[in-house]
Specification:
Layout: H1 6-18, E1 22-26, E2 29-41, E3 44-50, E4 57-61, E5 67-70
Antiparallel strand pairs: 1-2, 1-5, 2-3, 3-4
């Protein structure tokens, strides 16, 4: 997934605003995280998030994601 659609950006921004969880699939692994912000690092987009149980910070690169879905 090289780029998100407009609807996916809206859903991700809503999840960041409302503190909802997001499922991100990368290399066959599913990460369920609470996104805190969408940022540019260099020329790449990153989702800066926290693990919902441990609170550990995590950075997920948008261009490495196979799929991104807001958990409802």
């Amino acid at each position: 997934m090289a780029q998100l659609t407009v609807a996916q950006y809206d859903a991700l921004e809503g999840a960041i605003r409302d503190g909802r969880r997001v499922a991100v699939w990368r290399r066959g692994t599913e990460y369920v995280v609470i996104p805190e912000r969408l940022a540019l690092r260099g020329r790449r987009e990153a989702i800066e998030a926290r693990h919902p149980v441990t609170g550990q910070p995590l950075v997920l690169w948008v261009d490495e994601a196979e799929a991104i879905e807001v958990v409802r």
